Structures
1.
Amino acid sequence: MNNKCYIAIDCGGTKIAAALFSEQGQILKEETLKLEGAGGKDAADKIVTLINSLLHHAQTSNSVPVSLGVCIPGIVYHDTGKVWAPNIPDWDEYPLLDHLLKSLPKSIKVSIDSDRACYILGETWMGSAKGAKNAIFVAVGTGIGAGILVDGKILRGHGDIAGATGWMALQRPYNKKFDACGNFEYYASGDGVARTAKEILKNTTGYEGTLNPGTLRSEDVFEAFDKGDPVAIETFGQCIELWGMAVANYVSLFNPEKIILGGGVFGPAVKFIPQIMEEAKKWAQPISITQVSLKATTLGKHAGLIGAGRLAMLNT
Amino acid sequence: MNNKCYIAIDCGGTKIAAALFSEQGQILKEETLKLEGAGGKDAADKIVTLINSLLHHAQTSNSVPVSLGVCIPGIVYHDTGKVWAPNIPDWDEYPLLDHLLKSLPKSIKVSIDSDRACYILGETWMGSAKGAKNAIFVAVGTGIGAGILVDGKILRGHGDIAGATGWMALQRPYNKKFDACGNFEYYASGDGVARTAKEILKNTTGYEGTLNPGTLRSEDVFEAFDKGDPVAIETFGQCIELWGMAVANYVSLFNPEKIILGGGVFGPAVKFIPQIMEEAKKWAQPISITQVSLKATTLGKHAGLIGAGRLAMLNT
């Protein structure tokens, strides 16, 4: 008897990861391919190459692939199947769905979704939000974005760009410097940690620590924090406040069961989660806050691939 | 031939409004009953009285009532059918659904939802958000709450208390005074307008206007604004900033097609909508903000009853 299986593709900025999932969620086969700067149709062809290799593997192991899920580092327009990914050349309104449908056996159903959508699908399937139907994944990296699950479905919005939480307004008055990325992201993303530290350094006299405003990156601030640097401590004090306010706003608006913090910053900021929850408790709707748990991602870098597998499985 | 019809109940704090809707959305019959302080089972019996009167009317006009929608000024727990309404005595976990199911013909399906959920259902059916599947109704009255429609469905959250937007954090640092109602509501609800004006008055020397901090209500601030009072002007400057930030946050998180402002404050604050949109544009995700329109409610006090009608119609 043949078993059903599902193909997952996680398209990053530099490489593509692919996996074949069993119906039970086991990874039967995993492969990766470097993008090597490929964009447009060439990048899409690399995805097809990986899929064909997995299809071949499925055939030799008597599994029947029924659907494909693709995780994209950008925006997916669901009415057209076109994608926009800032780190992949020529993927600006690129017709990825059409390309895949043309290149693959007609029996295979195809779904494409954004990385943040896949992250929360992955976490509710196998990770820190397992089984939750109302859950939010907050990806804090270079930028900040959120994948939001409402009653088991991805919140997409009118134009497929819901979850742009880096643009959240948390501190009036408005300042022109927020224009490029939004107020929350300006101060509390990976780059934001560095920006906050630089602003504090600028207003600190007699500082004798190791932080250098000319070369400062978030990694330096984390390192300085562990050594007790006062500017790093103040920086994370401010970031914890903003992360806590953001969590509070998700809680009051969405009344979720789980909020998962991930991305490069969580990571090293995982140690702050108890303090972030304390800050959130001050602001949030007082009943909703007792109904939520705030956790770090347990899937880490695999969240996109696992989410793509779940995406495939939900489309059958 | 008999036509289908739908029963709507809008339960306020002082009276109950009821209507019979045709399939085309026309009101065939409307009635009201004063609550006169009734709570618990007595309040529920008044609802049943109104429904029976409408059932009788339907019979005499050859219409067949297929479902009932009830709008409640509080929280509805959908797994138990119990309701909580702070302004109706003994409606704390009151089993309203059970009571209605026992008291009505078995052929009639019953749905109950919160006022803010009904408001957005009403507005997307017949009001300012007609046809929108992703839309938000922000009710700014004594408090602030939101009814949020995601892909045509009411956002309820894990514990049925999503949309508690009055608790939104918009201004750090946290202050104990926000504990009772939340930061946004503290400054920008009807009561919040008065609180903001009082804080400004306290910090203003040489004020010669009519505003009296001892007796101040939001109505007074609106009146003073129309006469050019500087404290009232500053008050609404701050409220517009907060309303704009809140709108921006809905836009960035939900990417909605419509945001509707209603409640007692919108009302007289409708004149500020262009300025609120200008403020929101500064903060919000720049593509999402171009996809949304911000409007005042056109249903006004009928939004709850119309929404209850829609609620009934959706449950067939």
2.
Amino acid sequence: MSSNVVWHTHPVDQEVRSEQKSQRPLVIWFTGLSASGKSTIAGALEQILTRQNYHTYLLDGDNVRHGLNNDLGFSHEDRQENIRRVGEVAKLMADAGLIALAAFISPFRDDRRLVREILPEGQFIEVFVDAPLTVCQERDPKGLYAKAVRGEIKQFTGIDSPYEIPEKPEVHIRAGEVSVAEAVNQLLSYLHEIGALQAGYEPVALEA
Amino acid sequence: MSSNVVWHTHPVDQEVRSEQKSQRPLVIWFTGLSASGKSTIAGALEQILTRQNYHTYLLDGDNVRHGLNNDLGFSHEDRQENIRRVGEVAKLMADAGLIALAAFISPFRDDRRLVREILPEGQFIEVFVDAPLTVCQERDPKGLYAKAVRGEIKQFTGIDSPYEIPEKPEVHIRAGEVSVAEAVNQLLSYLHEIGALQAGYEPVALEA
């Protein structure tokens, strides 16, 4: 069984996977109020990155709440645990060499800080999707704000539970003022600036 | 915000990611006694696949127990929850287009069945790493069997907790009789047989 030794001396690690994919592994973490545009912007960014042959994965309520976190409710403890697990999965995704995108309200600074701290230096990018509460309430695509105002949903962020604004997000998107296309270009520009995109990057011409 | 519509109509899904990586997403699940060789064989397979430019990720106790599942102990319920979460993460990895490898004792049929059931048809491959208990006890690299026999560890699989043998594993490796290299070639051969490897595959010449 001497071949064991050979195997163990060349493990496949983040560096190998990162080189294979010609990209810097990252966790791009979108935080903001419900209906601020987190998932839309994250999904649009993912699409553009994938077209340019980056390897990505988008974590959001849809693929996490129905599976991994289907045992969690919406109490304060459960919301904390929800974010903790998503952070750990995003870390595994980055360890796999991927650019992981995560779109969660994640209203508490401490929860977001914990995710930043488990990641290697420079691999966590906090994106504050900043839309005024009034704008989000007006959009209210799922009628959640209306229910929260009527008291049918408790501890709803922005209504009867606080949203703690990021103090030093890597990217601050004024989502009430810019289009999705502009938000994506702001993100691409930032990623380019920090050297996370290959040379030759140009802002994307976006469909009207 | 009409561009929203454009974004949402072309989501990046498993099919897109699978095409990008030119591979079939899979979960290759290694089950067997402690010290049967699961992690060694899984790590060796991952190395070979990565050299052949497949995109992989290996989940095992090392990267899961210290992070995502660091809140879980070794009670029956916690071990079930450990496997449930690993299964969900492996599913997300496969959804990301990766070949996910998972190496866990996972002694209970029901727990393994649940993982199979959450995955799309044909994306779960159960690998039974079958080494006789006596062989595993003799290897005992971490001294765990010795501790279990002395009663210092409770509910240790093979000693005072059962291992439920897979009834129809996709691959059955007789790990007491074959080398790591032979086990890897058995797995590559199976993957080739089901069309999960590109044409041009050949068994790997392995270092002595």
